[in-house]
């Protein structure tokens, strides 16, 4: 468990970062010329910069969007969540618009403006159903998707082609492969370099790999079982992750310390063959490339699935929520609609690698011809699954990741991890009641 000194260190870091945000906003120059400033908190990608500059130029003299940046290399998603929650518990600390992970919507809904009144049915119908589905809380639209990602498996095409039976393996990977066949291939190859990498530290990324598996076995798992994880399907999902590391030795044990960024760096540095990631990886690391020559040889494919199950990949990405404390809601809505335009969504895909959230880019022949990858990845898109929508999901997920990571490190058995995890979540529910 986390030591007392570590806990105090985390608290201090959170306090300092939250204080930074408040000072940043309060020290910004507030023009006396009537320019309305919108404070937008998100990780500022290349697409963000272009679009914010474009909008500010369009609204010059009237409205200015001021970004508050959360760089990937400086903030984990958990740190970002806690900072935003801390800021919004009072009166929002001046933040008007902020991006949340798709799994945070339920938690942040109480601090946000309901959005149904601001959009027509036509405007809502422009948006893809998959990302829009997670924008509701108790039947009310409280967020709008900005971009979305899905889990994919990357492979080094150059390394794969040169292996024994490489072309045959490549064909199977591109067509879609079961975990049973994937493990057999890895075992037969007996590679010195890592066969398969997945981030497996005590955090949400580990849960995503588990969700790919358990929701492939049963898409309605959490509707039928709630957070009872002590079931045969759940055991089968976690057991595979544990076996990849400890039985089959296809994944090095060091992954139990990795979040996304370190796992990606290790994969590139060690000439790994396969890695579980997000389809935006080829853009996420452009500013801090590990090895550009190797990275250019990465190809995306469907994550493997159990032989008697369906392919499934977790949907991720970021949604926009408007603070209920903002006194600039009309102007914020206009900016949100600008970000949801076809042109802006194309920019998010082109410059930052996120899937667009508007239907037209997938249906219009102009975009289909321009971006062949979107057409090629339709199979992956059709297999998207959502993590359970629950106000306390992030609390329960932290419990899950702790016990799952312990099982991967062989501190406890899979069966024991699932029993203890289920009991801990049930106790947490009682405390919250």
In CATH, the architecture of the largest domain is: 3-Layer(aba) Sandwich
Total DSSP E strands: 11
Q: What is the CATH topology classification name of the largest domain? A: D-Maltodextrin-Binding Protein, domain 2
**Number of helices in the DSSP assignment:** 23
The residue fraction in helices comes out at 40-55%
Query: How large is the radius of gyration?
Result: 22 Å
Mean pLDDT metric: 89
CATH class of the largest domain: Alpha Beta
Number of domains: 2
Shape: globular
Spans of at least 5 consecutive residues whose pLDDT stays below 50 are 1-13, 25-31
The CA-CA distance between the termini, in Å, is: 25 Å
CATH superfamily of the largest domain: Periplasmic binding protein-like II
Question: What characterizes the major β-sheet?
Answer: 9 strands, mixed
Quickly give the structural class: alpha/beta
Characterize the structure shown.
The chain has 433 residues and is an alpha/beta fold. It folds into 2 domains: 12-148 and 316-379, Periplasmic binding protein-like II (D-Maltodextrin-Binding Protein, domain 2); 150-314 and 390-432, Periplasmic binding protein-like II (D-Maltodextrin-Binding Protein, domain 2). It is built from 23 helices and 11 strands. The protein has helices spanning 4-26, 46-58, 77-88, 105-108, 121-125, 129-133, 157-161, 166-175, 179-189, 204-217, 221-225, 232-246, 260-269, 281-284, 292-295, 329-339, 342-352, 360-363, 365-370, 372-376, 378-381, 393-408, 414-432, and strands at 36-42, 63-69, 97-101, 136-137, 140-141, 144-156, 196-197, 274-278, 298-301, 313-322, 384-385. The strands form 2 sheets. Strands 1, 2, 3, 6, 7, 8, 9, 10 and 11 form a 9-stranded mixed β-sheet that branches. A two-stranded antiparallel ribbon has the order 4-5. Helix 2 runs antiparallel to helix 17, helix 10 crosses helix 12 (232-246) and helix 22 (393-408) packs antiparallel against helix 23. The model is unreliable at 1-13 and 25-31 (pLDDT under 50).
